[in-house]
Amino acid sequence: MIDGVEWRVSPGLTEYRAALATMEERAAAIRAGTASELVWLVEHPPLFTAGTSADPAELFNPLGFDVFEAGRGGRYTYHGPGQRVGYIMLDLDKRGRDLRRFVHSLEGLMIDALARLGVEARREPGRIGIWTGRGTEEAKIGAIGVRVKRWVTLHGFSINVAPDLTHFSGIVPCGIADYGVTSLNALGKGADMADLDASIHSAFPDFLGNLSRITNDP
Fold first, then answer.
1. What's the pLDDT tens digit per position in 34-57?
2. Which of 43, 54, 83, 115 is the most buried (most CB within 10 A)?
3. What residues pair up with 171 in beta bridges, in sequence order?
C-alpha cells in the first residue's frame, strides 16, 4: 500500500477483456467504499485498442491482432508483450476533482520513472504521450489514455520496455504519423520490466502529492 493505494503486479499476459471487466468492478467498489484504490501493472497479448476518438483509417492491422473498444479517451493504441501497462484506479472525490491535473500528474509520473532509468523523457505541446530524443531520433516511448466514471479513474498509461516495435506499424499510434516509437531496449538501456516497476513505485508518492487531496479536517 502507498497512501492507501493497493499495488498489484500480474505475472504473464493478462487478457484485455478480462482487464476491462476487472477495472469496471474495482472502480464500482471504490465508489461504493468497499475496496481500496488500486495501481495494477500488467502485460497484454498483442492487440490494438480503440479510444473514443479512433479513426478507422488509422487501423491497418496486417497481422490480424484483436481490436478492442477501450472506452477511454484517445485514438488507436498498441499493447503487447514487453510493454508495461499501468491501470490507475483512484478516487478523485478525495484527491481533487481535477481531471486535467490528474492527467498532467500521470505524465509526470511516467517522466520521473523513466528519468530514474537514465531516460530523458518529456511532454510535447500538441502531442499525446511521452517523448524522448531530438531531431531524427525523436520518438514516443509512452502513451496515456484515461477515463473517469463517477470520479473514479480507469485505464492509465503504457511504457515500452522491450516490445516488438514492428507491431506498431499496424496503426497510426495515437493518431501521430510523423514520429516513430521507441523503447528502453531500443535506447540501449539495460532496464527490464522489474526495473521499470521499481521506478514507477518510487515515483508514485510524488505523483499522489501532486494531486489535490481533500480531507475531512475542520
1. 999 999 999 999 999 988 888 888
2. 83
3. 59
Domains and CATH numbers, the chain: 5-209 (3.30.930.10)
Q: How many CA atoms lie within 13 A of 170 on its CB side?
A: 21
DSSP letters spanning 152-202: EEEEEEEEESS--GGGGGGB-GGG--SSEE--TTTTT----HHHHHHHHHH
pTM: 0.92
Torsion, CA 204, CA 212, CA 73, CA 172, rounded to 10:
-50
Return the SS3 of 52.
coil
DSSP notation for 14-37: --HHHHHHHHHHHHHHHHHTSS-E
Q: Are strands 139-149 and 180-181 parallel, antiparallel or unpaired?
A: parallel
DSSP string of 97-146, one letter each residue = S-HHHHHHHHHHHHHHHHHTTT--EE--TT--SEEE--GGG-EEEEEEEE
Residues annotated catalytic, as ranges? 174
Q: Which amino acid is at 64?
A: G
